[in-house]
Amino acid sequence: MTIRQISIELENKPGELSKISDLLGRGRVNIKAISASSTDEISTVHFVADDPEKASNIFKTHGYKVKETEVFAVETPDHPGGLNAVLKPLREASINVIYLYPYIGLSGSNAILILGVDKTTEAIEVLKANWVRILEE
Fold first, then answer.
1. Within this chain, do residues 64 and 77 fall inside the same structural domain, yes or no?
2. 30 and 52: one domain?
3. Are residues 79 and 56 in the same domain?
4. Which end of the chain is less congested by CB atoms within 10 angstroms, N or C?
5. CA 111 → CA 75, 89, 125, distances in Å?
């Protein structure tokens, strides 16, 4: 099952990330996973929220350009080399991992990752065939 990821660009200066956290907090939207990367002037923030439609509307209302993408969440064994339980089957199927970042929380003793790939439906099928648990939204 896929999850809707929201991405926005921010000026790369102090307080910008705090502003979006504040907007979502005031809107009672909880961030479940987040990743931020930057260049000299712009930061790109990818995140999964408990109410993606509301989060998207909040940002649009405040003038942010919102990009929505389908991603998915997987359980990953939380031990050295455990990430390869997810990455190796994708590599063998020639599926490119564009990005991955942690979900805030654990599933038992396993880590949870958000994955963005070039072939989402195929990736989910490949991982399920390799006994990797895909999490529901």
1. no
2. yes
3. no
4. N
5. 6, 18, 20
Q: Which has the closest alpha carbon to 90: 104, 100, 102, 80?
A: 100
Read off the CATH number of the domain in which 60 is found.
3.30.2130.10
Based on the fold, state whether residues 60 and 76 are members of the same structural domain.
no
User: What does the DSSP assignment read for 26-47?
Assistant: HTT--EEEEEEEE-SSEEEEEE
Measured CA angle at 125 (ends 124, 130), to 5 deg: 95
Q: Please state, in angstroms and rounded to a whole number, the distance separating the CA atoms of residues 54 and 126.
A: 32
Output the CA torsion 77→49→25→111 (10° steps): 0
* Structural domain range at position 9: 3-68
Write out pLDDT tens, residues 52-86: 999 999 999 999 999 999 999 998 888 888 899 99
What are the tokens at 39? 């260049």
Task: Give the pLDDT confidence of 95-129 residue by residue, as tens digits.
Answer: 999 999 988 865 667 788 899 999 999 999 999 89
Give the count of domains, the chain.
Answer: 2
Residues 110, 82 share a domain: yes
Question: What is the number of other CB atoms lying within 10 angstroms of the CB of residue 1?
Answer: 10
